[in-house]
Amino acid sequence: MAVERPGNDEIAAIATAFGMHFSKTKIDEYRQALQANFDAYDVIDELPDYIPPVTYARQPGETPAEHDNKLGAWHYKSRIQGAANGRLAGMEGVIKDNIAVAGWPMVNGSATLKDYVPDVDATVVTRLLDAGATVVGKAVCEGFCFSGGSHTAASGPVHNPHRQGYSAGGSSSGCAALVGAGEVRLAVGSDQGGSVRIPSSFCGTYGMKPTHGLVPYSGAMPIETTLDNLGPITANVVDNALMLEVLAGPDGLDPRQLQGVLPRAYSAGLSRGVAGMKIGILREGFGHANSQPDVDQSVRAACEILRKAGALVEEVSIPMHALGPAIWLPIAAEGATQQMMKGNSHGFNWRGLYLTGMMDHHAGWRQHADLLPDTVKLTMILGEYFVQRYQGRYYGKAQNLARKLRAAYDEALLRFDLLVMPTLPLKATKLPGADATLDEYLARAFEMLSNTCGFNVSGHPAMSIPCGTGDGLPIGMQLVGRYFEEAEIYRAAYAIEQMVDWRRV
Fold this sequence. Notes:
Elements lengths: L7 H10 L6 H10 L1 H12 L27 E8 L10 E5 L26 H8 L3 E6 L19 E2 L2 E5 L5 H8 L5 E5 L6 H7 L2 E4 L20 E5 L2 H11 L30 E5 L10 H16 L3 E5 L7 H19 L13 H7 L11 H17 L2 H23 L2 E5 L15 H9 L6 H6 L3 E9 L2 E8 L5 H14 L6
Parallel strand pairs: 2-3, 2-6, 9-10, 9-11
Antiparallel strand pairs: 1-3, 4-5, 6-8, 7-8, 7-12, 11-13, 12-13
């Protein structure tokens, strides 16, 4: 089928939008000159797309009824049986609903992506199945993943597994809720500002944001290429390390990845203990304006346990950590507006796997923009204003400052094996009601980012582990390591897991 040719009026409108001024004769000349180019597009239109094959059979599925979905965390239930053998054999897992699973509906938390069904499995899905895992469904996520709360999905709020009516965190809200409730053993989430670590902190799960690019993002809906990460959410450290061994490594389809960086045996050295490890308690990670005292106290108590186990623990100051959210904001707001929204999810100017069906369906947001959640609307207005008014200079300056932030962390990590702080300054909050003001709705979505988003900017691996409770709600401790040294994070996480029964602390 031939691509549609524009008329003179369409060419004139495009030229005018670019500030070009053509006479009617010139417009007609341009239309004639373009014909050979359209013929080339016809060739592309006739060729089959070049996407990875789908190799595992899947059963019919359904969106569960409300009585079978009390947390509001399931988007879709089905079953794909993986390989007969592998490191994850016998384990059941879910996939965040911004990650493609062929034949399963995907809405990425938004009403505007309705009726999209991918025709490809994301690389992480294939790798889970190759490792013997069984994928049993899709988990609800926040509206286009732009919320650290769990109240923005088009399907409704996701509830905390430890207390109904409280936030599960976001944007991988359903993933952490289902793992925290014991309904599944594994989940793959995404993290652009803390979206694996935030719900893990609220729900009492183990959530790893790996070094940027370690896990291929191919087949997931991008937000902003320099911030995008996929990572495992589990109920214990061993499963998390095994899962990362399976997920990590280049796939040749993702420009975020450094070729030649191979996964390591993250689970092999878990029992080495922490004797001799140098742990830096990040001063600027505590005492935020919204920090809850029991959160700070619980994390410091866990650090004392590390000290008693033989780690060398001392406080370290990285003043630039406090600037992480400010540096993150222009990258996230302007970048997401250009790539995820105006660029129809994938944007331009990179080599790799493009899900053209996703691009087609997501472009429909323009006809249904009123259905977008307020978190996305606010971000788009902010991002577009600064692109139009300042030509993207603040995006560029923030990316420059990102290198300085990484250097500040790297300098501290020359002296310490790990940096430690609360994952979030607070425990799970009440879900905002249907009558919540805009201020409350937005506050519950963005109030918890102070310690997480800076490591999306810098690219360092960061993991949330449960270290205690307050008023019956989990408290998360964040461990941050050097690039590609996730094994050191797992080593300390496992030691804490063995020494601390976080549910009783």
